[in-house]
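To whoever is on call:

I kicked off a structure prediction for a single chain this morning and the downstream step that reads the tokens threw a length-mismatch warning. I double-checked the sequence; it's 416 residues and nothing unusual in it as far as I can see. Pasting both halves so you can look.
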Amino acid sequence: MTPRRRGPRPLPLHLNLALLRGMGAALSLDPMTGAPFSPGSPSWSDAWPISRAGRLEMRRIAEALVAGGHPPERFRAAVLRQLARQDRALIAGLAAYRRHPAQREMPSLPVLWQEGETRLLDYGGAGPPLLVVPSLVNRAYVMDLAPGHSMLRALAAGGSRVLLLDWGWPDEAARGFTLTDYIAGRLERALAAPALRPLGPLALAGYCMGGLLALAAALRRPERLRGLALLATPWDFHAGDGQARERALTLAALLPGIEPVLQATGTLPVDLIQTLFAGLDPWNIAAKFRAFASMDPAGERAHRFVVLEDWLNDGVPLAAPVAREALGGWYGRNEPAGLRWRVAGAVVDPAELAVPSFVAVPGADRIVPPASALALAARLPGARVLPVPAGHIGMAAGGRAEAVLWQPLREWLAGL
């Protein structure tokens, strides 16, 4: 039976982006004005043919055609035909994804501890314990996608007793949580769960936003830990080129506009989170679905694409107080890098970490720019830094993930 899919979420946004791109091309090619089209933010202006490079290329070709005695209208028509072909491929890719029969099917796991919707899942394994902390805004199973392609099961098979803190969907109580409530509350209570006491000191690993939560917990409870791994974890939200700072400040500037939604629902809803992420690379979603249209639907590559895309669209809303802290405090005021981020009243300072650390930095990450993660590594005492030739998600779940991350992480854990 084919799953009922709503994605890519929010679907109207991605369809309208394709329309916006075509309108921008038509304006840029207008024979009367030749007016460049730019929505403003660099992230929204770098798609061919509305990017600066695309406009320069179009101008060069048009001038060459005129010099050769060819009417420029033919070039304009050719560009618009190409855009129409790409739009047809996008629709074909979206339709193929939504009717694809693939589903994630993994065995259920023992639950060692639970509070509200948050569960501590046991992946087994013979060896020292490793507790993995995912982000609050995505489902935890990105690290356990499919049989034979699961970071958590690979780590369990490679010498660690692997435990996953699955935050779950925020219930009514969790909608009022701050970052302190999650870190000094649920995360620390999970660390103190009776089932973990016989296992001894833990290694703690955090992915993306989960890395910041894990770091704060490690600073508060060093006696429970033997090491800390931070995977694609941001620190300096304004680091990198000027565009990184501009994007961060743009996200923060949206906070007053979404405040009515936060107050009405108690959360930052999934579709709004997806819209904010889309703003980091707004044209990528259409590009990947155009590529999917040409894949063999029965092939392993297509199956993996569908399972990963299902995960991307199976998001979790963010508690409203956390959304305010993240957008305003992290992205806007850059509180972590300025040593102004506090958990339970105490400043979170990586320089005070008392256990060995491992920092994985994906070189092609658009969500956490490498400079942001490297700023964290620079402040940690003696951190082992692993450059990863992958993107934010590909690092953990891509086709090369085992070689570029899982195995190096296994080796580091074995050396603790």
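Update from on-call: the warning came from a stale cache, not from the record. Cleared it. Sanity check on the structure: Residues 72-99 form the longest helix (28 residues).
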